User: Fold this.
Amino acid sequence: MSDKEKFIAHINEGYNFKGESIVLGTAILDGEALPGVQIKLPLKTLNRHGLIAGATGTGKTKTLQILAEGFSLKSIPSFVMDIKGDFSGIAMPGTANDKITDRMNKIGIPFEPSGFPVELLTISNEKGARLRATVSEFGPVLFSKMLGLNDAQTGVMAMIFKYCDDNKLPLLDLKDMIKMLQYISNEGKTELQKSYGNIATTSVGTILRKVIELEQQGADVFFGEKSFEVEDLLRTDDEGRGVVSIIRLTDIQSRPKLFSTFLLCLLVEIYNTFPEAGDLDQPKLVMFIDEAHLIFSEATKELLDQIEAIIKLIRSKGVGIFFCTQNPVDIPEAVLAQLGLKIQHALRAFTAKDRKQIKLIAENYPMSDFYKTEDMLTSLGTGEAAISVLNEKGNPAPLSATLVRAPFSRMDILKPEEIDTFVGKSKLVEKYDEVIDRESAFEILKKKLEESEKEADGQKSDEVKKTKEEPSAVEKVLKSTTARQVGRTVARELTRGLLGVLGIGGSTRKKKSWF
Assistant:
């Protein structure tokens, strides 16, 4: 048996799954695509999470697109964070050409142009159904970790949330939190200290600055009501295809805190809301996090710890998470260790440091008798990838260089008028785009301070009025009916005394000269 025949038998055995799977492409050996030797992804292990990596222009987004298409056809909804804005074309059918036809013939599946059901979402000023969450839903611990607070500042934050709970002050948006911080720095400081202990002014000032920084990154648009219900991500269309929910984030690349804040909030909400599911035959939801380095490059250690913990736990809820980035080193090792599926597009080695990194990356893949992994990673062409998946038993399937299939949908973005059409037909836009600004901590505290000022002004006015209206001691004596004569005598004596002090009138005794 030749090496080629051994390889084909090796791949066919390793990718012979009993349960449902989707076709990713066909195997490549020595630069030759092997027709019909299909590389598949079993749906049962999708909750083991995955990584899609590769240099710019190597086909990462198209791979993400074919995964979302495959999941949709299997009735699995997905959620895609579209940072670059180049994913929305999945809503429209693709167009065949000679290159696509040739590629699909090699893989052994027909090219069937198709658009897929999409829902456009936003946490900024992009068009789409608006996602929001309240500050209260975050809670003191998560909100503190998001801001990168130390232990002392986190303690202050816990006191603030407790005070608001005890006094029925809803914390809905950032202006509620800012108003609360201003209140405890001034008028409410004594009140809080009596019930909850001393509060360091410096800690409150630091927290306030960090909240304002978050607000300047656009988080004021995200925090508020109506809160997004994560169950709305679990939808299928009338044909039973999973809906691809695309959150358009093209205008927040320079605001990483808002990005990481949103992601963590969403993951926590999904974990807290979805029931335990264990190992399902296929997941309830798959999430794609594009440009994942934006999350981890600016995240605090506390935030990274929280993300790592959630990723470990959320698989039991039937949720799979795929990180998409240029280089696997962008992902912290603790998170990378949780990713069972790896799709690695070509890497470029321009420096000695690049070559060292590629060598380390190659060690993350299963050993192979047919590839020198380090060389393979730098020689892959556009639309080709090194793929390693977990089989249905949770063991790594054979490593294979793969010619990835072409997307069935458009490999380009939606036009503005097409976006308007999808947004106009969306039921979620109708559900979430209404801005609700009910009475919360900001309005209650503002009203309380206004009433206090009004009461203080009233007391001051009454005192002034009382002072003006109330007769003096002399006048009272003078007006006394029973002691009128005595009053006159006393008045004269007092007048004289006062005039004497002032040097006017009084005694006619000659003044002593100082000269």
In short: The longest helix spans residues 441-469. The chain has three domains: 3-130+283-307+316-430, 135-223, 451-498. The longest strand covers residues 32-42.
